[in-house]
Amino acid sequence: MKTAFYCLIGLLLVFSSCKKLAELTQFNLNYNTETTIQAGPASNLPFDVFTPEITTASESEYEGKKTSKNLVQSILLRKLVLKTDPTSGRTFDFLNSIKIYIAANGKPELLIASKEGIPDTIGNELALECTTEELKDYLVQDKYKLRLEVKTDKIVNQDIKIRIESLFRVDAKILGL
């Protein structure tokens, strides 16, 4: 009986240690950028909106987590939210659909988030559905770009500044563990 008890305690310690170790090797990276959708007519045909290059500062980010980009095992997009300036009174009611693609030096463009059938009742914040694509090769680089493929169903009578907030989950070896 005592042996079974000690085995059970041992197993619990091993599993809780593995979970704590996994927590040490995983962390979040937040990257934000802005872009502008130009005023224009409603178009159910897609048009592109580009962001400026986004600097990852990956080396300093990884050093702060006691790792380096060559020890990164995986990076996945967990959350991508678009926001308009709440003081502008502008919402995302003009959007019909949106797709967001990532590109980096030497890497093919990749769809990372989208939203179809956006209701007219949407406010000034829009959470997109993220893909499960592996993004390590894009985020360990110094810079990346986003391209928004937009379809509108209302006239955009003034330029609309959009803030793009993204949350990436990184799984890396910490201090070589």
Automatic annotation (TrEMBL):
Signal sequence range: 1-22
Q: Which UniProt keywords apply?
A: Signal
Protein name (database record): Uncharacterized protein
The scientific name of the source species is Flavihumibacter fluminis
